[in-house]
DNA sequence: TGTGAAAAGATTAACAG
DNA sequence: CTGTTAATCTTTTCACA
């Protein structure tokens, strides 16, 4: 069954698990259990429950874009001329499926979308904007900014004090 | 040794590994090998090499922010008044260490930083901006936009045709 | 719920082609 | 560089407190 994420109540063991795994995602279940002073089976059980309750939604592989021939990253801010649901959904679906797009933010406010993309070089970036973004008639305006550096913050790791 | 990421040359087996793992990061080495028609040891060897060469930089856990009590996400666009290296580095370090910050983009162009944050509610968002962003004297202006939805794109997965 | 021990499964290392 | 085997380690399962 697909549980409602928001209904899950997390106790302090769950929070410690998430905190450890957030800091060190490559821990095995065994190592995690020993850090937390739990039996392996207990730890595995909690982990599975966190997944089934939708708290842990998955894992991801971090890949170095440069190594793959995409040394240039950019944020493309997109503003629309029309906001009909149909157009917006279609555009979002298309953008999300476009190779090179790492993340696509759908926003409220001045910019309608932020696209985080990785490309080969400046020319590819120009082509990307022209061929994949402004080609959609619903797009009124774009503004492209280079990404100098991208860092991960602490994110939503549970505060230990709660 | 820390290898130079850009010097790694990827053959078609490496690319297939990355493509499979990008699509399905939870595959075990064994399952991956069988999908690609490789021996497990070969696949494991390739994987380790990809890590040592800095192509695969790590793994990450995806956690549902709502379940942890942060149902609201926003992008805070930050513009600076001064761009001295010292000030910029200090600010970036501080922001990257601030709880609630998921990612911090350092950009070239109109906005100097984009902060992707998760917070409890609108009031917490206001407090975040005031207490953690505009509190820095080097920040001249901020603009906050709500995140309606965030999707992952295909990213930099190797194209099979290369 | 949580635990410990046995069974099943996955990874690693050594070696051969 | 690839594949096979065997040893090691991890995860899963289950009876029981």
- The secondary-structure element order of chain A is HHHEEHEEHE
- Unreliable stretches of chain A (pLDDT < 50, length at least 5) are 1-6
Question: How would you name the oligomeric state of the polypeptide chains in this document?
Answer: homodimer
What is the name of the CATH topology of the largest domain in chain A? Answer: Alpha-Beta Plaits
What CATH first level of the largest domain in chain A would be assigned? Answer: Alpha Beta
Radius of gyration of chain A: 20 Å
What is the count of distinct domains of chain A? Answer: 2
Shape by Cα distribution of chain A: elongated
Biggest sheet strand order of chain A reads 3-4-2-5
- Structure summary, number of beta strands of chain A: 5
Find the biggest chain interface.
A-B, 68 and 67 residues
Strand content of chain A: 25-35%
Mean pLDDT of chain A, to the nearest integer, reads: 92
Biggest sheet overview of chain A: 4 strands, antiparallel
CATH architecture descriptor text of the largest domain in chain A: 2-Layer Sandwich
- State the share of residues found in helices of chain A, binned by percent: 25-40%
Class from secondary-structure proportions of chain A = alpha+beta
The separation of the N and C termini of chain A measures: 29 Å
The tally of helices of chain A reads 5
Domain HTH asnC-type (chains A, B): 10-71
Keywords (chains A, B): DNA-binding, Transcription, Transcription regulation
Pfam families (chains A, B): AsnC_trans_reg, HTH_24
GO molecular function (chains A, B): sequence-specific DNA binding
């Amino acid at each position: 069954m697909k549980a409602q994420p928001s209904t899950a109540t997390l106790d302090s063991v769950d929070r410690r698990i998430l905190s450890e795994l957030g800091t060190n995602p490559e821990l095995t279940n065994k190592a995690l259990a020993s850090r937390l002073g739990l039996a392996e089976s207990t730890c595995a059980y909690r982990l599975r429950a966190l997944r089934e309750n939708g708290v842990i939604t998955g894992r991801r592989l971090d890949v170095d874009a440069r190594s793959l021939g995409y040394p240039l990253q950019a944020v493309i801010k997109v503003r629309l001329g029309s906001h009909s649901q149909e157009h917006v959904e279609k555009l979002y679906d298309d953008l999300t499926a476009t190779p090179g797009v790492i993340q696509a933010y759908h926003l409220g406010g001045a910019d309608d979308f932020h696209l985080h993309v990785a490309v080969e070089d400046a020319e590819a970036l120009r082509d990307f904007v022209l061929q994949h973004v402004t080609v959609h008639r619903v797009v009124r305006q774009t503004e492209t900014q280079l990404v100098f550096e991208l860092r991960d913050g602490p994110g939503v790791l549970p505060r230990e004090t709660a």
